[in-house]
Amino acid sequence: MAVSALVLTPSGAQAQSTVRVAVVNPAKVFNDAAETQALKKKFEEDQKRIQAEGTGKVEELKRLKAGRDEFRQGTDQWKAANDKLIRATADFKVWQQSEQIRAEWNQKDQMRSMFDKITQTVAKVAQRDGIDLVIADIGAKLPEDLDGVNMAQLNDAILKKTVLFVSAKQGLDITAAVQLQLDADYKSGGPPAAMVNPVAPK
């Protein structure tokens, strides 16, 4: 059961309409979602693959350096081997940077995609349950130990509190319902929840 509020019509007439409001914690949905867990597992596997590939490249650099050092420094053979080592070292640094940029971009893309799916799923659950407004509960708990934070950090934490009270009434917090629907859509392999067309302001 979502919380209800009485809203007067713009004309100020006695007619009243009921607005149903609920809250959702998008961070909890994101962290606990089945798709997020799958993405984390894939990310860890990719990191292991990249680490193994990087180890192989480092070993190759060591081999090239050892081969160069077999020649007397300053000789044509040493210079040729050194040039090869320099090129391989430069290629390795470019590879490292490319992999880092690619990994960061993929993480940002996946995070944005997950947020879009969560938003769409919130709309789907809200429409299904007759909820008119969903408020995001994004504020973390205020620190119990004030010695561990400075004034700026405490002020920031307070200002980020978007929800100050949530009743224990069933259905008011739809976080679990949203995650359940999100996981169901993901496991079914189907498209994400349909995006709801916003109502144009009057």
TrEMBL record:
Which SUPFAM superfamilies does the record match to this protein? OmpH-like
GO molecular function (one): unfolded protein binding
- Coiled coil region boundaries: none
**Pfam families, sorted:** OmpH
InterPro entries found in the cross-reference section: Chaperone_Skp (IPR005632), Skp_dom_sf (IPR024930)
Identification of the protein by name:
OmpH family outer membrane protein
Q: Which organism is it from?
A: Humisphaera borealis
